[in-house]
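User: Design a sequence. Structure:
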């Protein structure tokens, strides 16, 4: 049973590969793909099949997926190119005879109005129509999106955003990776759409309060008009497209598009999801 994982040079894909190995999947049954195979060299040394896969190269994707019974399609990062990249990957997996394609989508993709949701929703429809058995993993926001900003929050004493009192069901990348590994190593998931999010949702004001408690330093939430928040992101050096997407996502958070009451993630990983407090403690420790 060979399993191909796209984006294995990235953070989520790499965590999935590591979790497959932890679960006892034979290294030679794992195909780790990415554009830069040099970054997969350590996995290759452990017996994992490292193959080059460029989402712009249909023939290369077909070669990369050859022999894979299951394919995990980790959504690509460039928002404007996502749908075309994803269709090429789905077509390649179909050509090579994949028996299951698992796709990492976004929470509430069917109803969310965020910029991020559009390509995900289109990809889900394309996948359903592909004729290949499928499963959709609608990953919520990463706790890592916030913990990576902890030094800046502490430096400025503020968590900026445009989410109002919206609640976000965030979980760690490791949580989402474990859910994907569960789907790839067990049966009965074909045709399922999993809404994946943390057990306990929080507002950005609660994020600031939790960081204050964990760090012993006062941090507050600054709710900004979206134009001002976008300008702040641009001023911090983010590319224009990313600043637009992140500020728009905060508006979606405020509308409830990054919230779920589903227990799918907890059920798939067989444990409680990572808490905000634990994630902040780890971030402060590192």
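Assistant: Done.
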């Amino acid at each position: 049973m060979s399993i191909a994982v796209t984006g294995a040079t990235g953070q989520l894909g790499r965590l999935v590969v590591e979790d497959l190995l932890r679960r006892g999947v034979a290294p030679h049954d794992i195909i780790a793909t990415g554009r830069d195979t040099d970054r997969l060299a350590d996995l290759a040394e452990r017996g994992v099949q490292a193959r080059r896969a460029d989402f712009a190269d249909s023939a290369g994707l077909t070669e990369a997926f050859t022999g894979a019974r299951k394919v995990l399609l980790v959504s690509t990062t460039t928002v404007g190119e996502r749908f075309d990249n994803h269709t090429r990957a789905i077509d390649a997996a179909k050509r090579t005879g994949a028996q299951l394609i698992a796709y990492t989508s976004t929470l509430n993709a069917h109803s969310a109005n965020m910029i991020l949701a559009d390509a995900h929703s289109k990809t889900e429809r394309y996948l359903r129509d592909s004729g290949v058995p499928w499963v959709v993993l609608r990953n919520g926001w990463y706790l890592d999106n916030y913990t990576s900003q902890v030094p800046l929050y502490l430096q400025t004493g503020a968590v900026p955003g445009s989410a109002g009192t919206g609640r976000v069901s965030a979980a760690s990348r490791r949580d989402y990776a474990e859910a994907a590994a569960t789907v790839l190593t067990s049966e009965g998931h074909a045709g399922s759409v999993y809404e994946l999010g943390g057990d306990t949702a929080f507002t950005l004001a609660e994020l600031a309060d939790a960081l204050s408690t964990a760090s012993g330093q006062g941090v507050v939430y600054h709710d900004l008009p979206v134009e001002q928040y976008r300008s702040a992101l641009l001023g911090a050096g983010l590319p224009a497209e990313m600043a637009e997407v992140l500020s728009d996502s905060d508006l979606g958070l405020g509308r409830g598009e990054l919230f779920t009451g589903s227990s799918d993630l907890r059920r798939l990983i067989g444990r409680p999801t990572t808490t905000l407090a634990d994630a902040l403690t780890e971030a402060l420790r590192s």
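The first strand starts at residue 3 and ends at 5. Strands lie at 3-5, 30-34, 49-52, 70-74, 100-106, 134-139, 158-161, 193-196, 220-223.
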